Amino acid sequence: MTDQIVKPAPAHHLELGDVERRIKAIFIGSVGNLVEWYDFYAYTAFALYFAPAFFPNSDPVVQQLNAAVLFAATFLMRPLGGWLFGFIADKHGRRLSLTLSVVCMCFGSLIIAVTPTYASIGIAAPAILALARIIEGLSLGGEYGASATYLSEVADADNRGFYSSFQYVTLIGGQLTAIMVLLLLQKVFLTPEELKDWGWRIPFVIGALLAIVAAVMRRNLHETEAFVEAKKVAKPTGSIRGLLNYPRELLLVVGLTAGGTAAFYTFTTYMQTFVKLSVGLTEDQTTLVIFGSLIFATILQPLYGALSDRIGRKPLLIFFGIAGTLSTVPILTTLKDTKSPLMAFLLICAAWIFVAGYTSINAIVKAELFPTKVRALGVGLPYAITVSLFGGTAPAVALYFKSFGHEDWFYYYLSGMIFISLIIYSTMRDTKHASAMHRHE
Fold this sequence. Notes:
With 441 residues, the chain is an all-alpha fold. It is built from 19 helices and two strands. It has helices spanning 16-54, 60-92, 94-114, 118-121, 124-154, 160-164, 166-189, 192-197, 202-219, 225-233, 240-243, 247-279, 283-311, 314-337, 341-359, 362-367, 375-391, 394-403, 408-427; strands at 5-6, 223-224. A two-stranded parallel ribbon has the order 1-2. Mean pLDDT is 83; it is low at 1-12.
């Protein structure tokens, strides 16, 4: 493992070699993030095909519900992952934490790929599947804080918003990759019967192999100069006790995340179900609409990130808060009533115009709240808790309201969550102008 570090250069005075090192570090960190999220979303994308193999039941809704329960279970593991990998990142280095998290994801994906079906080993099959998803949830919980911290620390001060926005570029990219693998297997290589019999294992094999590649790449990452400098100032602990010295910052992470994560999971994970079941589009139309809207969302991330480097983080957060509060109900109501794939695509893109105000910069805002010695834990742990409470549960809440005929209640629930975060945005400092990135105490 290399002992080189990424050293900060004075603002407005970056040498070409320094820029190249930063771009390489950000690329490797981001690719690992994409692989982790591909592995995670492959489960959702292929659940329709493998659910019967693990949950034999004559009712397909029960099969999907069982798969959805395991999806939610992974979110319960994310706070533990946020603590574990945040501790490793703050005590032993960002590079080690990033490498271990992607190895953990590789292990989870590989287990899913090779687990026998219910017909072969009975109840052990869904139990092993649950174990694999728990491992993946642990990995994802740690990935966010470690990668957000790494990307923010290797970026130069004038472009932190732009560089850190690639965390969500690759996060959404992981979902896009999972959809592309699904389309290729569905339309080109396999029949529906082959997909249900054994083809659903292929994406998890791919994910495990990609995770191995990402782990090797991350193993050779440069450690951040901020972490190295912080070690000179004080012995790193990565302890929760040390984190509790920053109660205001911890509450800020929870408050600014709640509405944003609910919106993100609504317009990614849940939107595929919503467009298919509530709007009534065909399976192919649904896939194209979701795929196109995610590409649009991906393009917005670096644009908004770069904008935050010019005007600050707070204006974008407030834009998300106001637009999200006022527009969520009209957009979802209109979306449910439309039967046009084009209109559905445009409406979801309209939502992304304000949702990107949160997703593009939320990682850097959190990183800028904490000093170096507790940054990864401070970013990762409260974020993971909040995502588990409000992000991962968003599809379940929506389906719960839908189950007794009041799907529109979810629209108001989401709008209210965004409004609560808006209150936080309007009262917090702009972290671009009052950043803790330079503090190593």
